[in-house]
């Protein structure tokens, strides 16, 4: 008969070992669940997906472990499972982290263990994100309306572009989007759908957004976009390590949220605007609302050595502003004044802006440093 307390002590010792001390799937520290058949230690959220795969999942702290299960866990562990199930993960494929949204984690787990896409064995048909061409219908938000309508999207590695059509049988695309400056990031809360994806790109000196979702294929779309972006970066870059390129494929924005903004004279009415801080492009973009298709303006965030600074600020006039926690961004050509509703938000914006400010500028950043506008 199994000794419950002895087995629990063994498992609690195993989960502290390097490799086992973080969730096998999202890297969250201190996993306290075990996927018994696979022999891996996972966090609470990832354990739910393992359970949906008909895999027996147990709590290290609450459940009883038989002797044979403990021996299996001792012989396996996270590192050995990773060597098998993550043997051939493409460099462009996004590996979810602890704070990523649920659908990314769920599809990563299913791709690893259920579909076994990364074991190195040839799959037929191949996963859609590996073919260099992907097409299908996505629900897309209208430019002026909040209504989502189905639109046909076509992604091409050969052309390095993403096209969408207003109708499935349209003769020509509504838009042809270059993959060069395209970014894709999951925005379930903002879009109001758990599979919501924001696609951002540059067009005619403006930053534009598309808001889309798909009930079952959005992660495949996301990784297909990343695959084409990765192929483009390889052709456009000099000899660079693949891991360095992988960091530039797509990114989450450093911070988003509402602030109030006044004009260049600092006497104009304060207006509530939605801000996005893109650390990779060093751009603070602002929109009328969180789901706007086009930005109203951009503030480039340089470094202190070329005349940029960020600090707390209380405006001399308060015409129209309801919020009292100020942030001042000084650029070589202008002072920008923003107001936050709460001190906690002011602190978060200051920390995020200073993080960008402290990072050395890359050569390509100087090209964009002129685009402070409006």
TrEMBL record:
Q: Which GO terms describe its biological process?
A: heart development
Where, subcellularly, is it found? Cytoplasm
Q: State whether keyword Amino-acid biosynthesis applies.
A: no
- Which parts pass through the membrane? none
The superkingdom of the source organism is Eukaryota
Q: From the UniProt record, which GO molecular function terms apply?
A: GTPase activator activity; phosphatidylinositol bisphosphate binding; phosphatidylinositol-3,4,5-trisphosphate binding; zinc ion binding
Could you identify this protein by its name? ArfGAP with dual PH domains 2
Which species does this protein come from?
Answer: Salarias fasciatus (Jewelled blenny)
- Please name the taxonomic classification of the source: Eukaryota, Metazoa, Chordata, Craniata, Vertebrata
């Amino acid at each position: 008969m199994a000794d419950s307390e002895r087995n629990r002590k063994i498992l609690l010792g195993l989960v502290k070992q390097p490799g086992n001390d973080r969730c096998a799937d999202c890297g969250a520290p201190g996993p306290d669940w075990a996927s018994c058949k696979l022999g891996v230690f996972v966090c609470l959220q990832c354990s739910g997906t393992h359970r949906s795969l008909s895999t027996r999942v147990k709590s290290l702290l609450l459940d009883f472990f038989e002797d044979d299960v403990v021996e299996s866990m001792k012989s396996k562990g996270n590192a050995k499972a990773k060597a098998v199930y993550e043997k051939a993960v493409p460099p462009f494929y996004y590996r979810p982290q602890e704070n990523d949204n649920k659908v990314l984690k769920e599809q990563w787990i299913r791709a690893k263990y259920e579909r076994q896409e990364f074991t190195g064995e040839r799959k037929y048909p191949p996963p859609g994100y590996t073919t260099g061409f992907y097409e299908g219908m996505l629900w897309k938000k209208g430019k002026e309306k909040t209504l989502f309508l189905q639109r046909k999207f076509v992604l091409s590695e050969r052309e390095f572009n993403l096209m969408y059509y207003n109708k499935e049988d349209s003769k020509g695309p509504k838009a042809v989007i270059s993959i060069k400056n395209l970014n894709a990031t999951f925005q379930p809360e903002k879009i109001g759908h758990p599979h919501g994806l924001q696609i951002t790109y540059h067009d005619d000196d403006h930053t534009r957004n598309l808001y889309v979702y798909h009930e079952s294929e959005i992660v495949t779309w996301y990784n297909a976009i990343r695959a084409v972006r990765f192929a483009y970066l390889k052709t456009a870059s000099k000899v660079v390590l693949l891991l360095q390129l992988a960091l530039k494929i797509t990114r989450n924005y450093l911070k988003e949220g509402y602030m109030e903004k006044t004009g260049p004279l600092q006497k104009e009415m304060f207006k509530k605007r939605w801000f996005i801080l893109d650390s990779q492009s060093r751009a603070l973009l602002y929109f009328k609302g969180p789901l706007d298709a086009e930005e109203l303006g951009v503030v480039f965030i340089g470094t202190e050595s070329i005349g940029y600074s960020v600090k707390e600020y209380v405006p001399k006039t308060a015409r129209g502003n309801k919020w009292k926690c100020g942030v001042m961004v000084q650029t070589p050509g202008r002072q920008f004044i923003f107001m936050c509703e709460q001190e906690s938000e002011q602190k978060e914006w200051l920390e995020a802006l200073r993080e960008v400010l402290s990072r050395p500028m890359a050569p390509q950043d100087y090209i964009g440093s002129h685009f402070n506008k409006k």
